[in-house]
Design brief:
This protein is of the alpha/beta class and 231 residues long. The protein is built from six helices and eight strands; from the N terminus they run βββααβαβαβαβαβ. A six-stranded parallel sheet has the order 3-4-5-6-7-8. It has a two-stranded antiparallel sheet with strand order 1-2. Helix 4 packs across helix 5. The protein is globular.
């Protein structure tokens, strides 16, 4: 158990005693998931909308063959653009079968066969950031769909959010999916991607397993260095 300690600082003949408190454990949704930070791969930065079943399977293979799986990298996460632009006749989300010929369930089965877990992407709005159907108003239906496909992780974005701006509105939208996922009975890690707009570090600990605190990052360091040039 960590214990509080005191530091004795001596400088220029003066003495200060500085108290250092015990570290406070991080708090997050108490569903037994993501007790340590989830590690894995997400396709967005490198591939954007060019995601496919082939890419996901190749990545799963590489995570295992490279030894990453052996040191804790578990998740293979599919980001935006995996679905069709309209829901099916029953209102269910539909995979883009041109990209995922075996569907998300078939892709999940392959990832699971490698000892890994599959992540999926959706949005807490009327549409995803790339313009595909969002889950706002369809939380229970979509959560059941994800569970039936064998999804283990949900990244839940914040585009097209029906004009919500207040913290209460954000909590309501994200809590709706939290409750829907729990109701499925499947263990699905819930990752809030609301970009840090409404101080999720204050309220998200009772809503999600993890949460974003900033906007998007990119696969480049050029933005940090004004003198650098890009080609």
């Amino acid at each position: 158990m960590a214990q509080a300690v005191a530091l004795l600082l001596i400088a220029a003949g003066a003495v200060w005693v500085v108290g250092v408190s015990s570290p406070v454990p991080a708090q997050a949704l108490t569903n037994g998931l993501a007790l340590t930070p989830p590690m894995g791969w997400n396709d967005w930065n490198a591939y954007g909308c060019n995601v496919s079943e082939t890419l996901v399977k190749q990545t799963a293979d590489k995570i295992v063959s490279s030894g990453l799986a052996a040191v804790g990298y578990q998740y293979v996460d599919i980001d935006d653009c995996w679905m069709q632009h309209s829901r099916g006749s029953s209102g269910n989300l539909q995979p883009d079968y041109g990209k995922f010929p075996d569907g998300i369930s078939g892709t999940a089965a392959y990832v699971h066969s490698k000892g890994l877990k599959l992540g999926i992407y959706e949005d807490a709005g009327t549409a995803t950031c790339a313009g595909y159907p969002g889950s706002l108003g369809h939380e229970s239906q979509d959560a059941r769909t994800f569970a039936s496909w064998g999804v283990d992780y949900l990244k839940y974005d914040n585009c097209n959010n029906n004009g919500s701006t207040t913290q209460a509105q954000y909590i309501s939208r994200y809590s709706a999916m939290r409750d829907a996922l729990a109701a499925t009975g499947r263990q699905i890690v819930f990752s809030l991607c609301e970009w840090g707009l409404n101080a999720p570090w204050i309220w998200a600990s009772s809503v999600g397993n993890l949460w974003r605190t900033t906007g998007d990052i990119g696969p480049t360091t050029a933005a940090c260095c004004p003198s650098s040039t890009r080609t």
